[in-house]
Amino acid sequence: MDLVSVGTVAFDTIETPYGKAERVVGGAATYISLAASYFTKNIGLVSVVGDDFPESELKYMQKRGINLEGLQIKEGEKSFFWAGRYHSNMNQRDTLTTELNVLADFNPKLPESYRHAKILMLGNLTPEIQMKVIRQMKKQPKLIVLDTMNFWMDVAMPALKKVIKKVDVLTINDEEARQLSGEYSLVKAAKIIHKMGPKFLIVKKGEHGALLFQGDNIFFAPALPLAEVYDPTGAGDTFAGGFTGYLAQSGRPTMANLRRGVIYGSALASFCVEEFSIGRLKGLGKREINSRIKRFGKLVHFDMP
Ligand code: AMP
After folding, report:
1. How many CB atoms lie within 10 A of CB 203?
2. 145 three-class SS
3. CB neighbours of 162 closer than 8 A, spacing ≥ 6?
4. What atom in ligand 1 is closest to the CA of residue 152?
5. How many Å from the N-terminal Cα to the C-terminal Cα in the chain?
6. The whole model's pTM is what?
7. Which of 49, 199, 205, 273 is the most buried (most CB within 10 A)?
8. Which residue CA neighbors atom 16 of ligand 1 most closely?
9. How many CA atoms lie less than 13 Å away from 266 in the CB half-sphere?
10. Residue 203 and residue 177: Cα distance in Å, rounded?
11. Blockwise average pLDDT, block size 10, the chain, 305 residues
12. Per-residue burial over 35-44, b = 16 or more CB atoms within 10 Å of its CB, e = otherwise
């Protein structure tokens, strides 16, 4: 297995200035796996849903090469549900509802075929579950990437810090980096977070791009300036999926590869926000992905005088 992705597979209700989408497909692992599926066909998903989750959506994931052996389906139970509302500044949103449902007593069980995966992508979930997955790996993955959010920092900081110690790359947004480190300056925050464990830190800044830190070595990827952003939900997870999917097929996780991974992640995220839910992540073509990556190159290219 090239990549194992762990996270929620969920229903979301989303309100943005462009409209409302009710009980649409979402969840961190959904976005991660779909984005990664454009780079590798060897992905295993670890999650849990209730029997209310549409079979057609699961079939679609399988069609994209995502292995669902690690997805538990709980009869008579309800899938994770999240509702959020975005402000006119779409970098800000309020969580209106988080219903854990099946996630409340989820005990992940990694199928044998997942336990030697090259890359482990721990999407947003309870830190205890993320730790349980790490413990089930039989071989140390080449790279463990962890994504989390302020919700878990508020309710489970000690458990979260234990998992953070075990990962190579942490991806969080700027506010979360400040909350985790207690430092406003992102440069100082990165130094503190490195000391917590991760060799690499990715700070996501929404429409303002992403920063990759490895000590004093810093790389910046802009977000593609888009005329319309319909729904930013899942952009962070899509970024993580593009990033890890690219790394899964590109050899060693060197800083040079990670830099490229950040651009591939940003390119995939730029598609995600163009439609509600996973709409735009279905059926992307190689050509449109490559042409978007070229646009990133053009965006930051300049000649020294
Ligand atoms: P993002 O916009 O990248 O933060 O990801 C949004 C996705 O994360 C949505 O599809 C939600 O279903 C899922 N989500 C929201 N809150 C949580 C949470 N507390 N734990 C895990 N997943 C969540």
Report:
1. 24
2. strand
3. 127, 131
4. 19
5. 47
6. 0.96
7. 49
8. 82
9. 31
10. 7
11. 97 95 97 97 97 97 97 98 92 91 95 97 95 97 96 95 98 96 97 98 94 96 91 96 96 92 96 96 95 93 91
12. bbbbbbebbb
> How far does the centroid of ligand 1 lie from the alpha carbon of residue 156, in Å?
16
Question: Does ligand 1 come within 6 angstroms of the Cβ of 28?
Answer: yes
Nearest Cα residue to 202 out of 236, 170, 154, 235: 170
What's the rounded Cα separation, in Å, for the pair 143 and 137? 12
Residue of 11, 49, 243 lying closest to 145 (CA atoms): 243
Pocket flag, ligand 1, residue 4 (CB < 6 Å): no
Q: How far apart are CA 73 and CA 280, in angstroms?
A: 26
Structure tokens at 257: 């590869």
Structure tokens given for 132:
């349980």
Structure tokens at 206: 């929404």
At 272, the amino acid letter reads: C
Nearest CA to ligand 1 atom 9: 27
Which H/E stretch holds residue 4?
A: strand 3-6
Report long-range pairs for 50-53 (Cβ below 8 Å, ≥24 apart). Answer: 50/74, 50/76, 50/77, 50/78, 50/79, 50/101, 50/102, 51/75, 51/76, 51/77, 52/11, 52/78, 52/79, 53/9, 53/11, 53/79
Question: What are the structure tokens assigned to 33, written together?
Answer: 């796996």
Query: Is 206's C-beta closer than 6 angstroms to any atom of ligand 1?
Result: no
Most distant CA pair in the chain, distance: 67
